[in-house]
Amino acid sequence: MEERTVVASAQWASEHGRVGAGASLAAKVLGAAAALVLAAGLYLGLVVVPPDAVQGDVQRIMYLHVPSIVTAYVAFLVVFCTSVLYLWKRDLRFDAVAVASAEIGVVLTGITLATGSIWGKSTWGVWWTWDARLTLTAILFTIYVGYLMLRSFAEDPRAGARYGAVLAILGFLDIPLNHFAVYWWRTLHQPSSIIRPGGPSVASTMLVPLGINFAGLVLLSIYLLLERVRLERIRHRTIEVRLKRGRRG
Amino acid sequence: MSIRAEGMVAGVLRRTWAMTWKDVTVELRARERINAMLFFAALVLFIFNFALGPDQEKLREVAPGLLWLAFLFTGMLGLGRSFQAERENECFEELLLTPGDRESIYFGKLAGNVLFMVTAEALILPLFGILYNLDIWRLLPSLALVAFLGTVGFSAIGTLLAAMTAHLRAREVMLPLLLFPLTVPVILGSVRATATILAGGGLGEVSHWLKLLGGFDVIFLVVCPLVFEFVLEE
Amino acid sequence: MGNWGFVGLAYGLASVALFSYLLLLKGRLRGAQEELAALERDSGRRTR
Lengths: 249, 234, 48
Prior knowledge:
The complex is a heterotrimer. Chain B is mostly helical.
């Protein structure tokens, strides 16, 4: 088992030329694109779009809050897929994408929680309520923070990758079950209805900054993913070099 | 069923039973686990009574939550120890050497954990009824059904995570940290269903919760044994 | 806190979070690259 993963690691590390080089051209382009798109989204959401009739300007927080959680869900879907692929193929590249995507997902979920809380304070006057959306986001956050902790506490990185993959599969399957449980809990008298988290219908003018910010966050996430995977590659190469030295020395 | 398939199923059942029986006999001799679980549960019930004060109405409102708090913390304790013997005596390697599928090990451990947790619950429930002045005997079948579904779901994920965290640093912290967020559907479903039943509602009123609990159990009783081998491999 | 105060707080926090993650990542990358470079230099010296 050790030989196989070390060989896979070595192939990956030495495949694309020098590991020590900086960010790839693709990554740099993506980073720049992300910055541009997010700037456009910021301008649209904060300046161009008129304030909400009911909530006023604080409603603009939605243009950050919603794309953030949706991108986080995409990130966690990636964690799930790459975890399954890793357990199946044992290619460490899948594991690298998994941990990278999980870190990004956790950051975005944290942002969702913070912006949701701030939005709540501005409209309801309290920093926290146990409403369905905030509760679900908090649970999601805890699950994937646990994923990152599990990986870091494993005695060796290969075990961490395996345990993490198993946990990621459980966590992802859990998400729909959590949705049902929490929404039914918060709407005691209509257990048969599945409330969609859309809330009031979204006006078409709102869709544009929502979409643009979502695209911007996705671009940013891919850029961060590429860099984080590069870090993982360097770490694997380091392990490989150490092992080779151990054998020779 | 072909003879070969029958033989395989019989083999799985036999190995599962062997695993469960081993855990049960070890426990019966030392009674460490069940004693700790019961003591802890009694502690929870008493302390919360002191914390919440003498207001009977308030106590009745939170009673279902308290009951499940006692059940779940007790279950946690039991789960935390379910792989302790293997870890202390370095038997993990032995488990892997025994011929046969990993699924048997999982189901054997799961059955043991469910057994311990249900036993503890059976002893906690009457104590709960007495301390909080609730007529549980009339409602026993419904309560038992909810408790069983919840226990199975909690233990299904708990057994897997217990095996995973057995090797880890800070495992006493990691097991609850990983287990509780994942079992929120079980916790919510069990508590809400118990609350409705204790308030006089029939099983019909909690059918959606029962379906959620049942669905949770089925999903993880299928997935957990499948991924268990990845946890055990060295 | 005024309406725009809340909006500013939300967008500000999010920006800080994303920037911090990026900066920390860059830092981790630099550290790992230096470690690898040092290791490879040592390995080279040994085999000669």
